[in-house]
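Margin note: ligand = iron/sulfur cluster.
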Amino acid sequence: MDQAASNTGPKIGFVSLGCPKALVDSERIISRLRAEGYSLSGDYANADAVIVNTCGFLDSAKAESLATIGEALEENGRVIVTGCFGVEAERIREAHPDVLAITGPQQYEAVVGAVHEVLPPPHDPFLDLLPPAGIKLTPRHYAYLKISEGCNNRCSFCIIPSLRGDLASRPIKEVLAEAERLVRAGVKEILVISQDTSAYGLDLRHAESDWQGRTWRSHFLDLCEALGELGVWVRLHYVYPYPHVDRVIPLMAEGKILPYLDIPFQHASPAVLKAMRRPANQEKVLDRIVDWRRQVPTLALRSTFIVGFPGETEEDFQFLLDWLAEAEIDRTGCFKYEPVAGAKANALPGAVPEEVKEERWHRFMQAQQAVSAKRLKSKVGQRLDVIIDEVDVEGAVGRSPGDAPEIDGKVFLDGENGLSPGDIVPVLIDHAEEYDLWGSVAEERS
Ligand code: SF4
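Resulting structure:
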């Protein structure tokens, strides 16, 4: 189970499954419950009830959600289900008729209401004072900043818009106020998340607000520029390569935001991209990547890809491999296409047999490993800033600007145990393997 405990008020156990966006939902629910005087239990046995925040994106995630609900029922017996998979309440009830309540994604009020029914709130709301940044499930030195919910795109393999609705951005003032609170609470790295970060503010018609003596639009570029004023690491996730993304590269060159872009390309073949109904014209992306790297040679690109999408031919797949080698995407995740109930792609002709998907997945991973190894090898002998995540007797483990927590590689600093999580230190890289780096703290610290 996630999270530590405190000892006052009815105790809630919390299990958070799924993506960073779901994690942010979990943080909001927990912050709200803590503000009302509930406390958290770190295990099932001591909890008065358990909330399971589920993921409903892929069938494998739904299976994991059902298994987790089953485990919580067995260990505790009083279970409230929320999150993306909550929209399939009937399916959950069929498998687990004893769950107490089921709510969908972002239904904070409904989840908290369900908790009130099961465990009335304690009388003294001041029992637990809320820390200034709310409750975070991530370590204290980094935090996810969710800038919008939902998505205006309609990718054929995805049901997120039907789960989470169209794009709904938070006004820039609200986002920046939260970022400031996080920094005041000690956060050293902000990870910007949404379904489509580069579309931020479209639904608000880029409404303006004042912050720190300047007027800012609810717009991707203003957001990046303003976050760059906070003096912490700022990392951008889920960015689509719309033309205006080019204009954020100079902020990376100036060191205002991290030289890192997480762009979920999903494929490279024009035919497959068309069948996927992906947003943003990706045809000129290779030229743009070359130009971005000319401006910021340290730029790290992360992406996810799907192999075995309906209709993907061997030529399409080979096109993807060639593209990957040319674009030199530093970090990738690769998924075998899985039909998601309710997705339009299920009706497309040309289903790819499972053994072909498997074979393509292995070829993709091999090709990606070669790219990653080549990119990391070029860092040996360089001095990189590294943010420290963990320290133990053997040394410290951190990440470079090119590594997001949980999904990318690590930098191992063997024997460096005088550091603390959240420290940012200059490191001389002396060894590289396929996905990780090794080094030691360079003489002077930044
Ligand atoms: S951009 Fe496409 S894949 Fe991403 S959430 Fe929107 S519809 Fe889904």
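Residues 354-377 form the longest helix (24 residues).
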